[in-house]
Specification:
The complex is a heterodimer.
Chain A: E1 4-7, E2 10-13, E3 19-25, E4 31-38, E5 42-51, E6 54-57, E7 64-66, E8 76-78, E9 87-94, E10 104-105, E11 109-113
Parallel strand pairs in A: 2-11
Antiparallel strand pairs in A: 1-3, 3-8, 4-5, 4-9, 5-6, 7-8, 9-10, 9-11
Chain B: E1 5-7, E2 10-14, E3 19-24, E4 31-37, E5 44-50, E6 55-58, E7 61-66, E8 71-76, E9 85-92, E10 105-110
Parallel strand pairs in B: 2-10
Antiparallel strand pairs in B: 1-3, 3-8, 4-5, 4-9, 6-7, 7-8, 9-10
The chains are: A mainly beta, B mainly beta.
């Protein structure tokens, strides 16, 4: 199916464990993003990527690692999860045409760190 | 890229009324977008207005852009309960495509 999908939708993990959130898009969009959303903070950009093998930090990158070996995938890894990383995570993508910069969002991953 | 700041943070109106929310930003832009987020869901793109446009319409949505004041407004006419959502603006300088969002305006439309 065409679109942008995140997996898993829900995840409970323990403090200190490594966890990877997956994001896959089928449009071959150049740009991909990871955000976290917490009450009172809106959406905060964690990392973004302009193309395969090109990634850059956003506003809140500490504690997260990303990779982009293929254009369609942009996994987000929490190397050692902490309770403060309990949040809803959204992935998004944009095509390269900067005149039409509409972003498409995934359904979100609700992560709870206990 | 830059972050827009939405105002008010929360807005509560009755069904049928109009809802207006505003967005301010700091530096020159190529375009500005508005997004809607229903509770617990991903953001959905509503409308994009370019820097050389002053007003744009899409159904019950009307967006204005005043580049001299570095501000934009989103008007939803004849609101419905289904319009209850958070609304975010995203000013963009184009090029880098780094998309940053503010805290949004939480709109509640009471039936």
């Amino acid at each position: 199916d065409a679109g942008i999908t995140q997996s898993p939708r829900y995840k409970i993990t323990e403090t200190g464990r490594q966890v990877t959130l997956m994001c896959h898009q089928t449009w071959s969009h150049s740009y991909m993003f990871w955000y976290r959303q917490d009450l009172g903070h809106g959406l905060r950009l964690i990392y973004y990527s302009a193309a395969a093998d090109i990634t850059d930090k956003g506003e809140v990158p500490d504690g997260y690692v990303v990779s982009r070996s293929k254009t369609e995938n942009f996994p987000l890894t929490l190397e050692s999860a902490t309770r403060s990383q309990t949040s809803v995570y959204f992935c998004a993508s944009i095509g390269k045409d900067s005149l039409r910069s509409e972003a498409f969002f995934g359904q979100g991953t609700r992560l709870t760190v206990v | 890229s830059q972050q827009g700041e939405e105002d008010p943070q929360a807005l509560s109106i009755q069904e049928g009324e109009n809802a207006t929310m505003n967005c301010s930003y700091k530096t020159s832009i190529n375009n500005l977008q508005w997004y809607r987020q229903n509770s617990g869901r991903g953001l959905v793109h509503l409308i994009l207005i370019r820097s050389n446009e002053r007003e744009k319409h899409s159904g019950r949505l009307r967006v204005t852009l005043d580049t001299s004041k570095k501000s934009s407004s989103l008007l939803i006419t004849a609101s419905r309960a289904a319009d209850t959502a958070s609304y975010f603006c995203a000013p963009s300088q184009g090029g880098s495509e780094k998309l940053v969002f503010g805290k949004g305006t939480k709109l509640t439309v009471n039936p």
